Automatic annotation (TrEMBL), chain A:
<dbReference type="InterPro" id="IPR050166">
    <property type="entry name" value="ABC_transporter_ATP-bind"/>
</dbReference>
<dbReference type="Pfam" id="PF00005">
    <property type="entry name" value="ABC_tran"/>
</dbReference>
<keyword id="KW-0813">Transport</keyword>
<keyword id="KW-0067">ATP-binding</keyword>
<protein>
    <submittedName>
        <fullName>NitT/TauT family transport system ATP-binding protein</fullName>
    </submittedName>
</protein>
<dbReference type="InterPro" id="IPR017871">
    <property type="entry name" value="ABC_transporter-like_CS"/>
</dbReference>
<dbReference type="InterPro" id="IPR003439">
    <property type="entry name" value="ABC_transporter-like_ATP-bd"/>
</dbReference>
<keyword id="KW-0547">Nucleotide-binding</keyword>
<dbReference type="GO" id="GO:0016887">
    <property type="term" value="F:ATP hydrolysis activity"/>
</dbReference>
From TrEMBL, chain B:
<feature type="domain" description="ABC transmembrane type-1">
    <location>
        <begin position="62"/>
        <end position="245"/>
    </location>
</feature>
<keyword id="KW-1133">Transmembrane helix</keyword>
<dbReference type="GO" id="GO:0055085">
    <property type="term" value="P:transmembrane transport"/>
</dbReference>
<keyword id="KW-0472">Membrane</keyword>
<protein>
    <submittedName>
        <fullName>ABC-type nitrate/sulfonate/bicarbonate transport system, permease component</fullName>
    </submittedName>
</protein>
<dbReference type="InterPro" id="IPR000515">
    <property type="entry name" value="MetI-like"/>
</dbReference>
<feature type="transmembrane region" description="Helical">
    <location>
        <begin position="224"/>
        <end position="244"/>
    </location>
</feature>
<feature type="transmembrane region" description="Helical">
    <location>
        <begin position="186"/>
        <end position="204"/>
    </location>
</feature>
<feature type="transmembrane region" description="Helical">
    <location>
        <begin position="70"/>
        <end position="88"/>
    </location>
</feature>
Length: 257, 266
C-alpha cells in the first residue's frame, strides 16, 4: 500500500525579480513502513519538496496524496523533524512539555503516557524535567524526534535532521532512527544532501537533479533492516551504491539525456 | 562570591556617597554657608521622612500616588501586550501604524500633562496621562517580540496544527516575553515620572502634590524627604519587577537575562 503518492509535483516561486522553479515534474511513491531518502545537491529544492508534502506550501503543479487523500493544508497525521532543532523546540517548555505540547486533543494521562514512551524510545527517559538548552545538540534533536513520534504520524518527514550535529552524534542518531523504525514500523521520508547517509538509512534512495529538481534515479538499497556503522559502510553493496549516487549527482545532466 | 560580599559590594559606594553628603552638609550648616538651608544633611532628611511617610500622609498621599502609578502602569501593560501581540503578528498592521506609533512615542510624555488638564480637567488627568505615557515601550517592545518568532517555530506550529490559543499564548507570548519585560521596565519608570509630574498640577493629593506643597511652604527638608521617597519607590518596584521577570523567564539561560537587565537599565 502506498502511504505517499507524489504525482507531477512542481513548484515555482514568483518573486519581484522573475520566477524560480524549485522542483518540477516529480513522481514517486513511498510505501507504508518504508524509509525513503531523498538526496540532492545543495539548493536543489529538497526543502521545497518537503514543504509541499507537509502542506506548508501549496504546489504550483501536481498533487501530493497521503494514504489516498489529497494534501491540501497540513495533514493531521504528519510530523516533521526540522534540521534546526534549537529553533524547532520551544525553549520555555521542559523536555516533557515539548513532547506533550502538540497532543492537545488527548487526555492528560494519555499525553503523559505518550511522552514517557517517546522519550524512552529516544533514550531520554531521565531528561524530561530539563529545558532544551540544558541538553547537547544531539539530545535536543532526540527530543524533536520524540515529539514527532509521540504524535504518531502516518508519515514522518525529516529535513536534514542530522546536518547540525557532529559526526559522532550523527552516527548515533542514524542508528537511533533505524532502531525506532524497526520497532515502530514508521514510514519515513528523509531529505539529505549527505550521500552516505542516504544509502546507510534508506530502503530506497531517490536522487534529485540540480534545480529545478527532478527525479534522476530510484535506487533500491539491499542492505537489510539491521545495519552497522562500521561493517555496513565497509560492505561492497554500500560502497557500490554510494559511488552510484555520487556519480548520478555529479553527472546529473548527462543521466537525464 | 557569597551573598554577603555581593550585597556589601553593591551598597558600599552608596553608603560612602551618603556619608560624604552628610559631612559636607553638616560642615556647610556649621559655617552657616549661603543656601545651606536648602541642603539639609541626610540625617535630618531621614528623620523628617520617617515622620512624614508614616503619618496620615501615608494614606492621604502615598497610597493614592502609588495606586495611580501602579494602576496606570498595569492598564498600559495589559493594553500594550494585547495590542502588541495582535499587531506584531499581523502582516500589514505595522506598515500602516508604525509611523503613527513612533510619532506618538516621540512626544516627551510629561508634555501630555497640559493636554490632559485641558481635556479631562486638572483633578482627573493623572491616570490617563500615566496610561498614555507608559503604553508605548510595552506596546512597541511587544510588537517587536511578537514579530521575532522565528520561521522554524512558525512551521513547527503549523505542522503540529496547534490551536489558535496554543499559538498565541504558548508560542508567540513566550517568544515575546523577554522583550515584553524590557518594555514593562521602561514603562514602570515612565509611570513613576508621570505620577509625580501629573500630581504637581491640580491634584488634590499624591506625592507630587506634597512635593509642591513643601516647596510653597518653604520646607526643603520635607521636599527632600519626598524626593527620596520617589527614589526608594523607583528602586523597590524595579527590584520587584526583576524578581517577577526572573521567575517568568526562568527557562532562559541565566547569563542572557543579566545581559538584558544591564542593557535596559534594570
Amino acid at each position: 500500500m502506498n502511504m505517499l503518492e507524489v504525482d507531477g509535483l512542481g513548484h515555482t516561486y514568483k518573486g519581484k525579480d522573475g520566477s524560480h522553479t524549485a522542483i518540477d515534474g516529480l513522481d514517486f511513491t513511498v510505501g507504508a513502513g518504508e524509509l525513503v531518502c531523498v538526496v540532492g545537491p545543495s539548493g536543489c529544492g529538497k526543502s521545497t519538496l518537503l514543504r509541499t508534502i507537509a502542506g506548508l506550501i501549496r504546489p504550483s503543479r501536481g498533487t501530493v496524496s497521503l494514504h489516498g487523500n489529497k494534501v491540501d493544508g497540513v495533514p493531521s497525521d504528519l510530523a516533521v523533524v526540522f534540521q534546526d532543532y534549537s529553533r524547532s523546540l520551544f525553549p520555555w517548555l521542559s523536555v516533557t512539555r515539548n513532547v506533550e505540547f502538540p497532543l492537545r486533543t488527548l487526555s492528560r494521562t494519555e499525553r503523559e503516557a505518550r511522552a514517557v514512551e517517546a522519550l524512552a524510545a529516544v533514550g531520554l527517559s531521565t531528561a524530561g524535567k530539563k529545558y532544551p538548552w540544558q541538553l547537547s545538540g544531539g539530545m535536543q534533536q532526540r527530543v524533536a524526534i520524540a515529539r514527532a513520534l509521540a504524535y504518531r504520524p502516518s508519515l514522518l518527514l525529516m529535513d536534514e535532521p542530522f546536518a547540525s550535529v557532529d559526526a559522532q552524534t550523527r552516527f548515533e542518531l542514524e542508528d537511533l532512527l533505524l532502531r525506532i523504525r524497526r520497532e515502530q514500523d514508521t514510514t519515513v521520508l528523509l531529505v539529505t544532501h549527505d550521500i552516505d547517509e542516504s544509502v546507510y538509512l534508506g530502503d530506497r534512495v531517490l536522487v534529485l537533479s540540480k534545480s529545478p529538481a527532478t527525479v534522476v534515479a530510484h535506487l533500491d538499497v539491499p542492505l537489510g533492516p539491521v545495519r552497522d556503522q562500521i561493517t555496513t559502510r565497509a560492505s561492497d553493496d554500500f560502497v557500490e551504491l554510494r559511488a552510484k549516487v555520487a556519480g548520478l549527482l555529479q553527472g546529473a545532466p548527462v543521466t537525464v539525456r | 562570591m557569597n551573598r554577603v560580599t555581593r550585597t556589601a559590594q553593591r551598597w558600599v559606594v552608596f553608603a560612602v556617597a551618603v556619608g560624604l553628603w552628610e559631612l559636607v552638609t553638616q560642615l556647610a550648616k556649621a559655617a552657616e554657608a549661603e543656601k545651606s538651608f536648602f541642603f539639609p544633611p541626610p540625617s535630618e532628611i531621614a528623620l523628617t521622612a520617617k515622620d512624614l511617610w508614616f503619618s496620615s500622609a501615608f494614606g492621604d498621599h502615598i497610597v493614592p500616588g502609588i495606586s495611580r502609578m501602579l494602576g496606570g502602569w498595569a492598564l498600559a501593560g495589559v493594553i500594550g501586550i494585547a495590542l502588541g501581540i495582535l499587531l506584531g503578528r499581523s502582516r500589514r498592521a505595522m506598515a500602516y501604524l508604525g509611523a503613527v506609533f513612533n510619532f506618538l512615542r516621540s512626544i516627551p510624555p510629561p508634555l501630555l500633562v497640559p493636554f490632559f488638564v485641558a481635556a479631562v480637567g486638572p483633578t482627573n488627568m493623572q491616570f490617563p496621562t500615566i496610561v498614555f505615557g507608559a503604553i508605548w515601550p510595552v506596546l512597541l517592545n511587544t510588537v517587536d517580540g511578537a514579530r521575532g518568532v522565528d520561521a522554524t517555530k512558525v512551521e513547527t506550529a503549523r505542522v503540529f496544527r496547534l490551536s489558535r490559543a496554543q499559538w498565541t499564548f504558548g508560542v508567540v507570548l513566550p517568544s515575546a516575553l523577554p522583550k515584553v519585560f524590557a518594555g514593562l521596565r521602561l514603562s514602570l519608570s515612565i509611570a513613576l515620572i508621570l505620577m509625580v509630574i501629573s500630581e504637581l498640577i491640580g491634584s488634590a493629593n499624591g506625592i507630587g502634590n506634597q512635593l509642591v506643597r513643601a516647596q510653597r511652604d518653604y520646607e526643603p527638608t520635607a521636599m527632600w524627604a519626598w524626593i527620596v521617597l520617589l527614589g526608594v519607590l523607583g528602586y523597590l518596584f524595579n527590584t520587584l519587577l526583576l524578581v517577577l521577570e526572573r521567575r517568568a523567564l526562568a527557562w532562559q539561560p541565566r547569563h542572557s537575562l543579566e545581559t538584558q537587565a544591564l542593557a535596559t537599565g534594570g
